[in-house]
Amino acid sequence: MAATASPKSAEVRRRRLVAAAFLLPALVLLGALVVQPIGYSVYRSLFDRSGGTFVGADNYLEILRDDSIRTALRNTALWVVLAPTTATALGLIFAVLTERVRWGTAFKLLVFMPMAISMLAAGIIFRLVYDHDPHRGVANAVWVGVHDTFAESSAFPKARPGRDSPLVPADGGAFVTRDPVRAGVPVLLPLVGVAAEALPEGTRPAKAAGAEPGLVTGTAWQDFTRGGGGRTNTVDPAESAYAGMRIEAVKDGRVVDAATARADGTFTLSAKADGALLRLPASNFREAYSGVEWLGPALVTPAIIGAYVWMWAGFAMVLIGAGLAAVPRELLEAARVDGASEWQVFRRITVPLLAPVLAVVLVTLVINVMKIFDLVFVIAPGAVQDDANVLAFQLYRTSFGTNADPGLGSAIAVLLLALVAPVMFYNIRRMRREARR
User: Fold this and answer.
1) 2 pLDDT above the threshold of 60
2) What's the rounded Cα separation, in Å, for the pair 78 and 85?
Protein backbone atom coordinates (compact mmCIF):
# COMPACT_ATOMS: atom_id res chain seq x y z
CA MET A 1 0.00 0.00 0.00
CA ALA A 2 1.46 3.37 -1.10
CA ALA A 3 2.50 5.73 1.62
CA THR A 4 0.37 8.81 1.98
CA ALA A 5 2.03 12.23 1.54
CA SER A 6 2.86 14.00 4.75
CA PRO A 7 0.92 17.16 5.63
CA LYS A 8 4.18 19.17 5.43
CA SER A 9 4.99 18.14 1.84
CA ALA A 10 1.38 18.79 0.82
CA GLU A 11 1.63 22.30 2.27
CA VAL A 12 4.88 22.91 0.33
CA ARG A 13 3.22 21.79 -2.92
CA ARG A 14 0.24 24.00 -2.23
CA ARG A 15 2.46 27.02 -1.66
CA ARG A 16 4.38 26.31 -4.85
CA LEU A 17 1.16 26.09 -6.80
CA VAL A 18 -0.04 29.39 -5.34
CA ALA A 19 3.30 31.02 -6.15
CA ALA A 20 3.17 29.64 -9.71
CA ALA A 21 -0.38 30.94 -10.12
CA PHE A 22 0.74 34.43 -9.12
CA LEU A 23 3.87 34.28 -11.29
CA LEU A 24 2.14 32.88 -14.38
CA PRO A 25 0.64 36.21 -15.64
CA ALA A 26 4.01 37.91 -15.21
CA LEU A 27 5.81 35.07 -17.00
CA VAL A 28 3.30 35.20 -19.86
CA LEU A 29 3.79 38.95 -20.23
CA LEU A 30 7.57 38.56 -19.99
CA GLY A 31 7.53 35.93 -22.69
CA ALA A 32 5.21 37.92 -24.95
CA LEU A 33 6.92 41.30 -24.53
CA VAL A 34 10.59 40.33 -24.05
CA VAL A 35 11.49 36.74 -24.92
CA GLN A 36 9.40 36.40 -28.08
CA PRO A 37 10.58 39.74 -29.65
CA ILE A 38 14.22 38.87 -28.88
CA GLY A 39 13.85 35.41 -30.38
CA TYR A 40 12.08 36.74 -33.47
CA SER A 41 14.72 39.45 -33.95
CA VAL A 42 17.49 36.85 -33.90
CA TYR A 43 15.51 34.68 -36.34
CA ARG A 44 14.67 37.60 -38.68
CA SER A 45 18.29 38.78 -38.73
CA LEU A 46 19.22 35.60 -40.59
CA PHE A 47 16.99 36.43 -43.59
CA ASP A 48 17.13 38.98 -46.39
CA ARG A 49 15.09 42.14 -46.87
CA SER A 50 11.98 40.25 -48.01
CA GLY A 51 12.27 37.58 -45.33
CA GLY A 52 12.04 34.77 -47.85
CA THR A 53 15.72 33.93 -48.36
CA PHE A 54 18.03 32.64 -45.65
CA VAL A 55 21.29 34.63 -45.70
CA GLY A 56 22.93 33.46 -42.48
CA ALA A 57 25.45 35.94 -41.12
CA ASP A 58 25.38 38.24 -44.18
CA ASN A 59 23.43 40.92 -42.33
CA TYR A 60 25.99 40.94 -39.54
CA LEU A 61 28.81 41.25 -42.09
CA GLU A 62 26.93 44.15 -43.69
CA ILE A 63 27.12 45.97 -40.35
CA LEU A 64 30.90 45.99 -40.69
CA ARG A 65 30.78 47.14 -44.32
CA ASP A 66 28.16 49.89 -44.10
CA ASP A 67 29.64 53.38 -43.54
CA SER A 68 26.52 54.70 -41.78
CA ILE A 69 26.50 51.82 -39.30
CA ARG A 70 30.23 52.24 -38.64
CA THR A 71 29.61 55.91 -37.91
CA ALA A 72 26.78 54.89 -35.57
CA LEU A 73 29.11 52.49 -33.75
CA ARG A 74 31.78 55.17 -33.40
CA ASN A 75 29.31 57.75 -32.12
CA THR A 76 27.76 55.25 -29.71
CA ALA A 77 31.23 54.57 -28.28
CA LEU A 78 31.71 58.34 -27.89
CA TRP A 79 28.38 58.58 -26.10
CA VAL A 80 29.28 55.71 -23.74
CA VAL A 81 32.59 57.36 -22.83
CA LEU A 82 31.53 61.00 -22.51
CA ALA A 83 27.88 61.20 -21.46
CA PRO A 84 27.81 58.93 -18.34
CA THR A 85 31.16 60.14 -17.00
CA THR A 86 30.28 63.81 -17.48
CA ALA A 87 26.82 63.48 -15.96
CA THR A 88 28.19 61.45 -13.01
CA ALA A 89 31.04 63.90 -12.41
CA LEU A 90 28.68 66.88 -12.46
CA GLY A 91 26.24 65.05 -10.18
CA LEU A 92 29.06 64.34 -7.72
CA ILE A 93 30.22 67.98 -7.77
CA PHE A 94 26.69 69.32 -7.30
CA ALA A 95 25.94 66.86 -4.47
CA VAL A 96 29.13 67.73 -2.56
CA LEU A 97 29.01 71.49 -3.09
CA THR A 98 25.33 71.86 -2.17
CA GLU A 99 25.61 69.78 0.99
CA ARG A 100 26.71 72.71 3.15
CA VAL A 101 24.82 75.67 1.66
CA ARG A 102 21.49 76.83 3.03
CA TRP A 103 19.85 76.99 -0.38
CA GLY A 104 21.21 73.59 -1.45
CA THR A 105 17.75 71.99 -1.60
CA ALA A 106 16.45 74.69 -3.96
CA PHE A 107 19.52 74.30 -6.17
CA LYS A 108 19.08 70.52 -6.29
CA LEU A 109 15.45 71.02 -7.26
CA LEU A 110 16.47 73.25 -10.17
CA VAL A 111 19.13 70.80 -11.36
CA PHE A 112 16.75 67.84 -11.09
CA MET A 113 13.86 69.64 -12.79
CA PRO A 114 14.91 68.69 -16.37
CA MET A 115 14.22 65.05 -15.46
CA ALA A 116 10.52 65.97 -15.47
CA ILE A 117 10.79 66.89 -19.16
CA SER A 118 10.42 64.26 -21.85
CA MET A 119 13.28 63.56 -24.24
CA LEU A 120 11.15 64.93 -27.07
CA ALA A 121 10.53 68.23 -25.28
CA ALA A 122 14.21 68.50 -24.30
CA GLY A 123 15.17 67.91 -27.92
CA ILE A 124 12.90 70.70 -29.11
CA ILE A 125 14.31 73.04 -26.44
CA PHE A 126 17.90 72.36 -27.42
CA ARG A 127 17.14 72.54 -31.13
CA LEU A 128 16.24 76.16 -30.41
CA VAL A 129 19.14 76.68 -27.99
CA TYR A 130 21.60 75.58 -30.68
CA ASP A 131 20.00 77.62 -33.48
CA HIS A 132 22.71 79.26 -35.59
CA ASP A 133 20.93 82.64 -35.62
CA PRO A 134 22.14 84.58 -32.51
CA HIS A 135 18.75 86.30 -32.34
CA ARG A 136 17.08 82.91 -31.74
CA GLY A 137 19.69 80.52 -30.37
CA VAL A 138 20.70 81.16 -26.75
CA ALA A 139 24.08 79.41 -27.15
CA ASN A 140 25.13 81.60 -30.06
CA ALA A 141 23.65 84.73 -28.48
CA VAL A 142 25.96 84.25 -25.49
CA TRP A 143 28.92 83.24 -27.67
CA VAL A 144 28.50 86.21 -30.03
CA GLY A 145 28.10 88.58 -27.06
CA VAL A 146 31.38 87.39 -25.56
CA HIS A 147 33.15 87.52 -28.94
CA ASP A 148 31.94 91.03 -29.75
CA THR A 149 33.09 92.24 -26.34
CA PHE A 150 36.69 91.59 -27.41
CA ALA A 151 36.45 91.87 -31.22
CA GLU A 152 33.61 94.12 -32.31
CA SER A 153 32.43 93.49 -35.86
CA SER A 154 32.03 96.19 -38.49
CA ALA A 155 28.77 97.99 -39.09
CA PHE A 156 29.36 97.99 -42.88
CA PRO A 157 30.01 94.35 -43.88
CA LYS A 158 28.28 94.67 -47.28
CA ALA A 159 29.64 98.07 -48.32
CA ARG A 160 31.42 98.36 -51.69
CA PRO A 161 32.23 101.07 -54.26
CA GLY A 162 29.49 101.97 -56.72
CA ARG A 163 29.60 102.83 -60.39
CA ASP A 164 32.34 105.33 -61.40
CA SER A 165 33.50 105.47 -57.78
CA PRO A 166 36.89 107.04 -56.95
CA LEU A 167 37.55 103.90 -54.88
CA VAL A 168 38.91 100.60 -56.22
CA PRO A 169 39.39 97.22 -54.52
CA ALA A 170 42.75 96.49 -52.86
CA ASP A 171 44.36 93.41 -51.32
CA GLY A 172 42.71 91.76 -48.32
CA GLY A 173 39.24 93.24 -48.87
CA ALA A 174 40.24 96.92 -48.49
CA PHE A 175 39.45 99.80 -50.87
CA VAL A 176 41.80 102.62 -51.95
CA THR A 177 41.41 105.83 -53.92
CA ARG A 178 42.39 105.74 -57.58
CA ASP A 179 44.53 108.86 -57.30
CA PRO A 180 46.56 110.51 -54.53
CA VAL A 181 44.72 113.17 -52.51
CA ARG A 182 45.72 116.78 -52.06
CA ALA A 183 45.51 119.07 -49.06
CA GLY A 184 42.76 121.65 -49.33
CA VAL A 185 40.73 119.53 -51.77
CA PRO A 186 37.80 117.64 -50.16
CA VAL A 187 37.78 113.90 -50.88
CA LEU A 188 34.65 111.90 -51.64
CA LEU A 189 34.53 108.26 -50.50
CA PRO A 190 31.13 106.98 -51.72
CA LEU A 191 30.02 103.41 -50.98
CA VAL A 192 26.85 101.42 -51.52
CA GLY A 193 25.47 98.06 -50.48
CA VAL A 194 24.40 98.53 -46.85
CA ALA A 195 20.67 98.12 -46.30
CA ALA A 196 19.05 101.08 -44.58
CA GLU A 197 17.85 98.91 -41.67
CA ALA A 198 21.38 97.49 -41.24
CA LEU A 199 22.99 100.89 -40.62
CA PRO A 200 23.98 101.60 -37.01
CA GLU A 201 21.30 103.05 -34.76
CA GLY A 202 21.43 106.85 -34.70
CA THR A 203 22.94 107.18 -38.19
CA ARG A 204 22.74 110.82 -39.37
CA PRO A 205 22.57 112.35 -42.86
CA ALA A 206 25.92 112.80 -44.56
CA LYS A 207 27.50 116.22 -44.94
CA ALA A 208 29.93 117.38 -47.59
CA ALA A 209 33.26 118.26 -45.99
CA GLY A 210 34.62 121.79 -46.46
CA ALA A 211 38.11 122.57 -47.66
CA GLU A 212 40.73 123.37 -45.02
CA PRO A 213 44.12 124.75 -46.00
CA GLY A 214 46.98 122.31 -45.32
CA LEU A 215 44.62 119.49 -44.30
CA VAL A 216 43.00 116.63 -46.16
CA THR A 217 39.25 116.52 -45.56
CA GLY A 218 36.52 114.36 -46.97
CA THR A 219 33.27 112.43 -46.49
CA ALA A 220 32.51 108.71 -46.28
CA TRP A 221 28.86 107.99 -46.90
CA GLN A 222 26.20 105.77 -48.46
CA ASP A 223 25.84 107.04 -52.01
CA PHE A 224 22.25 105.94 -52.41
CA THR A 225 19.01 107.88 -52.05
CA ARG A 226 15.94 105.87 -51.09
CA GLY A 227 13.21 106.43 -53.66
CA GLY A 228 15.71 107.61 -56.27
CA GLY A 229 16.61 111.12 -57.34
CA GLY A 230 20.13 111.29 -55.96
CA ARG A 231 23.27 112.05 -57.95
CA THR A 232 26.17 109.63 -58.20
CA ASN A 233 29.37 110.57 -56.32
CA THR A 234 27.63 113.59 -54.78
CA VAL A 235 26.64 113.99 -51.12
CA ASP A 236 22.86 114.41 -51.27
CA PRO A 237 20.92 115.59 -48.19
CA ALA A 238 18.91 112.34 -47.87
CA GLU A 239 21.96 110.06 -47.91
CA SER A 240 23.38 108.47 -44.75
CA ALA A 241 26.83 109.00 -43.24
CA TYR A 242 29.21 106.14 -42.48
CA ALA A 243 29.99 107.21 -38.94
CA GLY A 244 32.94 105.35 -37.44
CA MET A 245 34.50 104.42 -40.80
CA ARG A 246 38.29 104.25 -40.47
CA ILE A 247 40.34 106.03 -43.13
CA GLU A 248 44.11 105.60 -43.55
CA ALA A 249 46.58 107.67 -45.58
CA VAL A 250 49.17 105.39 -47.23
CA LYS A 251 52.48 106.40 -48.80
CA ASP A 252 54.93 103.83 -50.16
CA GLY A 253 52.98 101.04 -48.44
CA ARG A 254 53.19 102.73 -45.03
CA VAL A 255 50.33 104.35 -43.08
CA VAL A 256 51.31 107.97 -42.40
CA ASP A 257 48.06 109.17 -40.85
CA ALA A 258 44.59 107.85 -39.97
CA ALA A 259 41.20 109.21 -38.95
CA THR A 260 37.70 108.02 -38.09
CA ALA A 261 34.61 109.42 -39.78
CA ARG A 262 32.45 111.62 -37.56
CA ALA A 263 28.70 111.23 -37.08
CA ASP A 264 28.08 113.16 -40.33
CA GLY A 265 30.64 111.10 -42.24
CA THR A 266 33.27 113.82 -42.47
CA PHE A 267 36.91 113.28 -41.52
CA THR A 268 40.12 115.28 -41.31
CA LEU A 269 43.72 114.18 -41.91
CA SER A 270 46.89 116.15 -41.27
CA ALA A 271 49.30 117.53 -43.87
CA LYS A 272 51.11 114.16 -43.79
CA ALA A 273 48.30 112.78 -45.95
CA ASP A 274 49.05 115.22 -48.79
CA GLY A 275 49.93 113.13 -51.85
CA ALA A 276 48.94 109.84 -50.23
CA LEU A 277 46.38 107.28 -51.29
CA LEU A 278 43.42 106.97 -48.91
CA ARG A 279 42.62 103.42 -47.87
CA LEU A 280 39.49 102.04 -46.24
CA PRO A 281 40.94 99.00 -44.40
CA ALA A 282 39.24 95.62 -44.53
CA SER A 283 38.33 95.91 -40.84
CA ASN A 284 35.57 98.32 -41.91
CA PHE A 285 33.90 95.55 -43.89
CA ARG A 286 34.43 92.52 -41.65
CA GLU A 287 31.39 90.28 -41.68
CA ALA A 288 29.44 90.20 -38.44
CA TYR A 289 30.40 87.21 -36.30
CA SER A 290 27.47 84.80 -36.32
CA GLY A 291 28.71 82.33 -33.72
CA VAL A 292 29.44 78.62 -33.76
CA GLU A 293 27.64 76.10 -35.93
CA TRP A 294 26.67 73.89 -33.01
CA LEU A 295 24.61 71.56 -35.18
CA GLY A 296 27.21 71.29 -37.94
CA PRO A 297 28.94 68.00 -38.79
CA ALA A 298 31.86 68.62 -36.42
CA LEU A 299 29.97 69.55 -33.24
CA VAL A 300 26.54 67.96 -33.54
CA THR A 301 27.35 64.87 -31.42
CA PRO A 302 29.00 66.81 -28.54
CA ALA A 303 26.10 69.28 -28.67
CA ILE A 304 23.52 66.51 -28.29
CA ILE A 305 25.58 64.94 -25.50
CA GLY A 306 25.43 68.34 -23.76
CA ALA A 307 21.62 68.23 -23.92
CA TYR A 308 21.66 64.72 -22.43
CA VAL A 309 23.96 65.77 -19.59
CA TRP A 310 21.66 68.74 -18.86
CA MET A 311 18.81 66.26 -18.33
CA TRP A 312 20.60 63.49 -16.42
CA ALA A 313 23.05 65.37 -14.21
CA GLY A 314 20.15 65.92 -11.79
CA PHE A 315 19.45 62.20 -11.64
CA ALA A 316 23.10 61.51 -10.79
CA MET A 317 23.12 64.31 -8.21
CA VAL A 318 20.08 62.96 -6.33
CA LEU A 319 21.42 59.40 -6.12
CA ILE A 320 24.90 60.53 -5.11
CA GLY A 321 23.40 62.97 -2.61
CA ALA A 322 21.48 60.09 -1.00
CA GLY A 323 24.71 58.10 -0.75
CA LEU A 324 26.54 61.11 0.63
CA ALA A 325 23.99 61.45 3.42
CA ALA A 326 24.90 57.93 4.58
CA VAL A 327 28.64 58.64 4.80
CA PRO A 328 29.73 58.62 8.48
CA ARG A 329 30.49 62.20 9.51
CA GLU A 330 32.94 60.99 12.15
CA LEU A 331 35.35 59.83 9.42
CA LEU A 332 35.26 63.19 7.65
CA GLU A 333 35.71 65.16 10.87
CA ALA A 334 38.53 62.89 12.03
CA ALA A 335 40.37 63.46 8.75
CA ARG A 336 39.98 67.23 9.08
CA VAL A 337 41.23 67.12 12.67
CA ASP A 338 44.28 65.18 11.46
CA GLY A 339 45.06 68.06 9.09
CA ALA A 340 43.63 66.81 5.81
CA SER A 341 42.55 69.50 3.36
CA GLU A 342 39.04 69.52 1.89
CA TRP A 343 40.42 68.19 -1.40
CA GLN A 344 42.17 65.32 0.39
CA VAL A 345 38.99 64.52 2.35
CA PHE A 346 37.03 64.50 -0.89
CA ARG A 347 39.55 62.41 -2.86
CA ARG A 348 40.64 59.91 -0.20
CA ILE A 349 37.49 59.46 1.90
CA THR A 350 34.31 60.78 0.26
CA VAL A 351 34.85 59.34 -3.23
CA PRO A 352 35.97 55.85 -2.03
CA LEU A 353 32.98 55.62 0.30
CA LEU A 354 30.68 56.69 -2.55
CA ALA A 355 32.20 54.18 -5.01
CA PRO A 356 29.17 51.77 -4.89
CA VAL A 357 26.74 54.63 -5.56
CA LEU A 358 28.93 56.05 -8.32
CA ALA A 359 29.02 52.58 -9.92
CA VAL A 360 25.21 52.38 -9.83
CA VAL A 361 24.84 55.79 -11.47
CA LEU A 362 27.54 55.14 -14.07
CA VAL A 363 26.23 51.73 -15.10
CA THR A 364 22.63 52.99 -15.26
CA LEU A 365 23.66 55.87 -17.53
CA VAL A 366 25.79 53.60 -19.73
CA ILE A 367 22.77 51.36 -20.36
CA ASN A 368 20.64 54.43 -20.98
CA VAL A 369 22.95 56.09 -23.51
CA MET A 370 23.42 52.91 -25.54
CA LYS A 371 19.70 53.13 -26.35
CA ILE A 372 19.60 56.90 -26.98
CA PHE A 373 17.34 57.79 -29.89
CA ASP A 374 14.95 60.69 -29.26
CA LEU A 375 17.50 63.46 -28.72
CA VAL A 376 19.40 62.54 -31.87
CA PHE A 377 16.20 62.31 -33.89
CA VAL A 378 14.88 65.71 -32.74
CA ILE A 379 18.03 67.84 -32.37
CA ALA A 380 20.13 66.81 -35.38
CA PRO A 381 19.00 68.54 -38.62
CA GLY A 382 18.39 66.25 -41.56
CA ALA A 383 21.61 67.32 -43.30
CA VAL A 384 23.81 66.12 -40.41
CA GLN A 385 21.85 63.13 -39.14
CA ASP A 386 24.44 60.84 -40.72
CA ASP A 387 27.15 62.59 -38.66
CA ALA A 388 25.10 62.35 -35.43
CA ASN A 389 24.02 58.76 -36.05
CA VAL A 390 23.95 56.23 -33.18
CA LEU A 391 22.98 52.56 -33.13
CA ALA A 392 19.41 53.01 -31.89
CA PHE A 393 18.77 55.72 -34.48
CA GLN A 394 20.35 53.61 -37.21
CA LEU A 395 18.10 50.73 -36.15
CA TYR A 396 15.06 52.97 -36.71
CA ARG A 397 16.30 54.28 -40.06
CA THR A 398 17.18 50.83 -41.36
CA SER A 399 13.98 49.14 -40.23
CA PHE A 400 11.43 51.85 -41.00
CA GLY A 401 13.08 54.26 -43.47
CA THR A 402 12.24 54.73 -47.14
CA ASN A 403 14.57 51.86 -48.09
CA ALA A 404 13.65 49.61 -45.16
CA ASP A 405 15.57 46.37 -44.61
CA PRO A 406 14.01 44.46 -41.68
CA GLY A 407 16.71 41.78 -41.84
CA LEU A 408 19.58 44.24 -41.42
CA GLY A 409 17.54 46.19 -38.84
CA SER A 410 17.06 43.00 -36.81
CA ALA A 411 20.81 42.36 -36.96
CA ILE A 412 21.46 45.85 -35.58
CA ALA A 413 18.92 45.18 -32.81
CA VAL A 414 20.71 41.94 -31.88
CA LEU A 415 24.06 43.77 -31.90
CA LEU A 416 22.64 46.45 -29.62
CA LEU A 417 21.31 43.77 -27.25
CA ALA A 418 24.71 42.05 -27.26
CA LEU A 419 26.39 45.33 -26.30
CA VAL A 420 23.91 46.17 -23.53
CA ALA A 421 23.71 42.66 -22.03
CA PRO A 422 27.19 42.55 -20.42
CA VAL A 423 26.57 45.86 -18.68
CA MET A 424 23.19 44.59 -17.44
CA PHE A 425 24.70 41.33 -16.15
CA TYR A 426 27.45 43.27 -14.38
CA ASN A 427 24.84 45.47 -12.72
CA ILE A 428 22.81 42.43 -11.59
CA ARG A 429 25.90 40.72 -10.12
CA ARG A 430 26.91 43.90 -8.33
CA MET A 431 23.41 44.29 -6.84
CA ARG A 432 23.47 40.69 -5.62
CA ARG A 433 26.86 41.19 -3.99
CA GLU A 434 25.54 44.28 -2.26
CA ALA A 435 22.47 42.36 -1.05
CA ARG A 436 24.62 39.59 0.49
CA ARG A 437 26.64 42.03 2.61
Assistant:
1) no
2) 11
Strand order in the sheet with 277-280: 167-169, 175-177, 277-280, 246-251, 254-260
* Residue ranges, CATH 1.10.3720.10, the chain: 58-144+294-436
Q: Which CATH number fits the domain 58-144+294-436, given the four candidates 3.90.1150.10, 1.10.10.10, 3.30.1360.70, 1.10.3720.10? A: 1.10.3720.10
Q: Are 249 and 258 in contact (CB under 8 A)?
A: yes
pLDDT digits (tens, 9 = 90+) for 288-326: 777 889 999 999 999 999 999 999 999 999 999 988 888
Report the distance separating Cα 165 and Cα 76, nearest Å: 58
Give residue 13's identity as a one-letter amino acid code.
R
Q: How far is CA 232 from CA 163, 217, 228, 262, in A?
A: 8, 19, 11, 22
pTM over 0.85: no
d(CA 316, CA 87): 7
pLDDT of 170-227, one tens digit each?
Answer: 988 899 999 999 999 999 999 998 887 778 777 889 999 999 999 999 999 998 887 7
Mapped to the 3 state alphabet, what secondary structure does the chain carry?
CCCCCCHHHHHHHHHHHHHHHHHHHHHHHHHHHHHHHHHHHHHHCCECCCCCCECCCHHHHHHHHCHHHHHHHHHHHHHHHHHHHHHHHHHHHHHHHCCCCCCHHHHHHHHHHHHHCCHHHHHHHHHHHCCCCCCCCHHHHHHHHHHHHHCCCCCCCCCECCCCCCEEECHHHCEEECCCCCCCCCEEEEEECCCHHHCCCCCCECCCCCCCCCCEEEEEEECCCCCCCCCCCCCCCCCEECCCCEEEEEECCEEEEEEECCCCCEEEECHHHCCCEEEECHHHHCCCCCCCCCCCCCCHHHHHHHHHHHHHHHHHHHHHHHHHHCCCHHHHHHHHHCCCCHHHHHHHHHHHHHHHHHHHHHHHHHHHHHCCCHHHHHHCCHHHCCCCCCHHHHHHHHHHCCCCCHHHHHHHHHHHHHHHHHHHHHHHHHHHHHHHC
Q: For residues 278 and 267, is the Cβ–Cβ distance under 8 A?
A: no
- β-strand partners of 248: 258, 279
